[in-house]
Every structure is written in C-alpha cells, then in structure tokens.
Specification:
The complex is a heterodimer. Helix content of chain A is 37%, strand content 11%. Chain A is α/β, with parallel strands linked by helices. Chain A has one domain: TIM Barrel. In chain A, strands 1-2-3-4-5-6-7-8 form an eight-stranded parallel sheet. In chain A, α4 runs parallel beside α5. By secondary structure, chain B is an all-beta fold. Chain B has a single domain, classed as Rieske [2Fe-2S] iron-sulphur domain (Rieske Iron-sulfur Protein). A four-stranded antiparallel sheet of chain B has the order 2-3-4-8, with no helix packed on it. Classes of the chains: A alpha/beta, B mainly beta. Chains A and B meet through loops of A and loops of B. Bound molecules: FE2/S2 (inorganic) cluster. The site of FE2/S2 (inorganic) cluster (FES) has 9 residues of chain B, from loops.
Chain lengths: 354, 116
C-alpha cells in the first residue's frame, strides 16, 4: 500500500480455517472417533446474516473453506499490503461454548499442534495464537505451559462468549499461565449466546444478527470492567490483554464512568491503588477491526484523542470475514506517527517481533 | 464522450455479469431482464471488487414485521461488508449520496458499448 511504503504492517487477527477432519491426526481417542463421525460441532450463536460470515472473494476456487488455503491468504492479504507478521487466530476458541471440558481441551490441543505443524512454516509472516478453552482453566493452563517457548506462538486466545465475567477468580489459572509464558491474552467474540454461554446482550437475546453484532461491544465492556475490578492486573502484573474485534469507540466513556465510580467505591476493590483507567492503559490493547465509521471521520479521531489510542490500538484485518478492514482504507485521520504505531510498532513490541 | 465496445450481446445471458477493461478502468457489465448496465468494479466503501458480489433482490421498505421481497436480479451486494447497490443506477440502498460509479451502456447492432 502506497500510504505505508515506509514500514510494513502487522495484522493482529487473521482467521485461518481448516476442515474438521484436518485435526484427526492430532486427536487421540476417544475424541478422534467423535470428530470423524460427526465433526467438531461448535455451539455458535445461531444468528443469521444475509451477508454471510465470509468475504465472497476469499472463497477458494476448490470449494474449501475461506481462510483454509495459506497461498490465497498470502496472495490476497500478506503480499498486497506488505504484512510482515500475521497473527493466525483460527476459530477454535469458539469451542468454549460447548459443554464437555475434556473434549474442548482436546480440540484445542489438536488444533494447536495442527497449526504448529501445518501453518507456521508456510510463510515467514505467519505467527499463531494458542487456542484454549475456558471450560476448565486448569487444563487451559496446562496447554499454555506445554507450548510456552515455541517461537511461532505469540499469544493465547480465548472466547469472549463465557459463562460469567472473565475477570473472576475461576479463570485465574489461565492468566497465571499466560504471565508465566510471557504471552499476551487475546479475547475474541463469535459464539455469544451459543451453548452454555450467557445471553449475548445484557438485555437478553435480540431477534437479529444486526443487533447481535452491534451489541458485541457490550460483552467487551463487561469483561473489561471485570478484569480491572477483580484485580487481574494487580495479581498478574505482567499480563497484557488484547481485546479483539470488540469495537474501540466505547472505551473512553466507559473509563470515565468507571473512574468516577471508583472514587466513591474504592473500598470495595481496595487492591486497586490507582484509577481503573490507568490499569487499562498499562495492560490493554484493542484491535481496530471492525472500526467504527461515523459519517464525519473527524468524530472518531476526536474520540481517539480522549484516550491513549495511538498506544493502545493494534491494526487487525479479520481476513477472510465479511467485516474485514483494508489497511489502506481506515484510520486515515490519524497522524503519520500514530498510524505507524497502530499498524506496526505497537504489535511489534507487544508480540516481541523483530 | 466515446462509446467503447466491450462485448457482443450474445456473450452475456440474462443474470450474468462480466469484468471488462476500458483503458485503465475495470468495469462490471451486468445483463438484467431489461438490458445491460455497467458499474465500476470498485466499491466506494473500502474498494472491494464488485464482480465478486452476489446479485439478487432485496426486502423493499415495508411496514414493521412485513417483508416485501422485490427487485430480484437487480441488486448487487458488495462481497466484503455487504452494502447493497441498485445495479441500474449504482446507488446504495441506504443513502442517496453513496453510489458505485455507473456508466451508460449503448447496444447497437448486437454490440455492447460503454459511454465514457
Ligand atoms: S468495501 Fe464494499 S461494502 Fe465495504
């Protein structure tokens, strides 16, 4: 991309996919027969969109799933946009809304081995997220420990569709393991409302995908407030949190509200010795896609000035999904130095690349 | 204004679309029931290739909880973020101001030409 010729891009969210049977060689029994017989069987949200989930021009000609052909990702994204590093996030984190903790953990392990063997070497830009299930945090921690130190894995990823707010102590073994491994924790939406997860909005189940998708930001607000108030960043000072695909424009007003309430209610969270917003600034990143698009782009730039956006945002494309953001088409109001941080420097530091 | 001949009438059946080049421009020629139309192969939002967009109908404005499927074969949906455009005018279905550039098409002696 011409606007970016001076530096390459790091893309924090690319969804590689595979046929369910691709995991069979990595799955032990009894799970292998289950998947061979009836597929993985995710419990997705069930909401329908006329647009579909995939970019129509990203469907491989051979009828395979979008995102399943590494060469096509390279051709459509990596090469045209000079992507130096791409974090392959997969879709397997969605397994957390199914019901059997042992099965979910086995699927994650098989997927992680599959990615290590069949994706990481395919292109120098490919890095990956370790998928873990939140259905048994001890098993998730074991999986993170197992893969810690592998140079291709640059973060751990979990689903934002969960049974209760992600800051709560039940989940802490996952965060302890991330901190031990020196890996950021990414939280990604997708299965909200499916299986054993909570309703996808605070008000319950809306009627349509339009409402479901718009309200995903609610889920992120609730999880973020939980992370801070439960003292996750106090207990695990080395932990970095990446909020993927949850929107960004809501952050500043949420933190104003949280800081204001903290002034009165500090004694209920005495482990927080600084304003809540300061923990967020020190520990959290948000990925850009799907970026909010007000009619007047200056309005988004103004919101960014109300938070430390240039140091907290990571560019993400979400390729090959329908709400993909092309790097040369978004955030054009940002100053060149800020753009460089968002599209490159922040991710390079966070993921310790190059 | 010049007419650039891009294909012969019989090369495109009703319901089909074809990518054509006119100089530097990439255009998509659509053949609908009532004739030929041409749009830029570039979505005004983030630049997706319109050729990959599905053509179909849409639900026309209606009363609450009523659905009136209409204009089958006349609406193209961008292959990325799903914006809907009227193939005949290039106009988006959500705003007068947002449109894919469209070009007049002239058919003469079985030849389909685009006026630019
Ligand atoms: S690029 Fe066409 S709707 Fe976004």
């Amino acid at each position: 991309m011409a606007a970016n010729a001076a530096y390459p891009i790091i893309d924090a969210d690319i969804h590689n996919e595979q046929e369910d049977r691709a995991l069979l060689p990595y799955l032990p029994e009894p799970w292998r027969s289950r998947v061979a017989g009836s597929g993985i069987g995710y419990a997705m949200s069930g909401y329908w969109s006329p647009v579909g989930v995939m970019r129509k021009d990203a469907l491989p000609p051979n009828g395979a799933r979008a995102g399943s052909v590494p060469e096509l990702i390279v051709e459509q994204l990596i090469e045209p946009f000079q992507v130096e590093a791409a974090v392959l996030t997969g879709v397997v984190y969605n397994i957390s809304t199914t019901h059997d903790p042992d099965y979910a953990a086995a699927i994650c392990s098989a997927y992680n081995d599959y990615v290590a063997h069949e994706w990481l070497g395919k292109h120098p830009s490919f890095k990956a997220a370790i998928a873990v299930s939140t259905l048994d945090p001890e098993l998730a921690a074991r999986e993170i420990d197992r893969l810690a130190g592998h140079p291709g894995f640059v973060e751990v990823i979990i689903s934002s569709a969960a049974r209760f707010p992600l800051g709560q102590r039940y989940y802490h073994p996952i965060y302890a393991a991330c901190e031990r491994a020196g890996l950021p924790l990414a939280v990604h939406p997708g299965a909200e409302g499916g299986g054993l997860s909570t309703a996808p909005t605070a008000a319950g189940y809306p009627s349509r995908y339009l409402e479901w998708h718009t309200n995903l930001s609610q889920m992120f607000m609730a999880h973020l407030v939980s992370f801070v108030c439960e003292g996750v960043f106090v207990k695990f000072p080395g932990l970095k949190l990446v909020l993927v695909e949850g929107g960004v424009a809501w952050l500043a007003p949420l933190l104003w509200r949280l800081d204001k309430n903290y002034k009165a209610l500090r004694s209920t969270v005495p482990w927080l010795t600084r304003l809540p917003s300061e923990y967020v600034r020190d520990h959290c990143y948000l990925t850009t896609q799907p970026i909010e698009e007000p009619d007047n782009p200056q309005h988004l730039a103004d919101l960014f000035n109300m938070m430390d956006a240039e140091n907290m945002l990571l560019y993400s494309s979400d390729y090959p999904h329908w709400d993909f953001d092309a790097p040369d088409k978004i955030l054009r109001k940002l100053k060149p130095e800020a753009r460089r941080k968002v599209f490159y420097d922040n991710a390079r530091q966070l993921y310790r690349l190059g | 204004m010049t007419v650039h001949v891009v294909l012969r009438e019989e090369e495109l059946a009703v319901g089909e679309a074809r990518l054509v080049a006119v100089g530097e421009r990439e255009l998509v020629v659509y053949r609908l029931q009532d004739g030929f139309y041409a749009l830029n192969n570039y979505c005004p939002h983030q630049g997706a290739p319109m050729l990959a967009g599905r053509v179909g109908g849409t639900n026309a404005p209606s009363d609450v909880y009523c659905y009136r499927y209409d204009r089958d074969g006349e609406i193209v949906r961008c292959p990325w973020h799903g914006w809907e455009f009227d193939i005949k005018s290039g106009r988006s279905l959500f705003s007068e101001r947002v449109r894919v550039r469209s070009y007049p098409v002239v058919v003469e002696d079985g030849k389909v030409g685009i006026r630019i």
